[in-house]
Here is the input.
Amino acid sequence: MNINATLFAQAIVFAILIWFTMKFIWPPIAKALDERALKISEGLAAAEKAKTELAVANKRVEAELSQSRNESATRLADAERRAQALIEEAKARANDEAAKIVAAARQEAEQQVVKAREALREQVAALAVKGAEQILRKEVNAGVHADLLNRLKTEL
Here is the structure.
């Protein structure tokens, strides 16, 4: 066999192999590679989209947290103001009640002083009558001299 004929036959077989590969084997491989590249690019696009959505969601969450903190701080301040107002109101009521109690006690004390003075007047008048009775050595009639005794009470 001739080396040129062998080379020529191998070149023809190689050309047929290339043609067969290009016609039947290469298109499904290229199609599979293109589909794989498309899936990878879609996955990367979805990942990028999810990343931006996550960033937006994080911003929204941070805004909501900030708003919630502000609202809770406002509510806390309102509650403290209400508590302070209630404390002041309770103090005012307690002071009013204390003033009423003190006024009632003073009035009661004044009434007791008046009663004590009245009782003392009665006792002094009775002692004066007894003293006068002993001095005169005769009995003084209280019913007859009631007007005189009343004037004596008012003078004391």
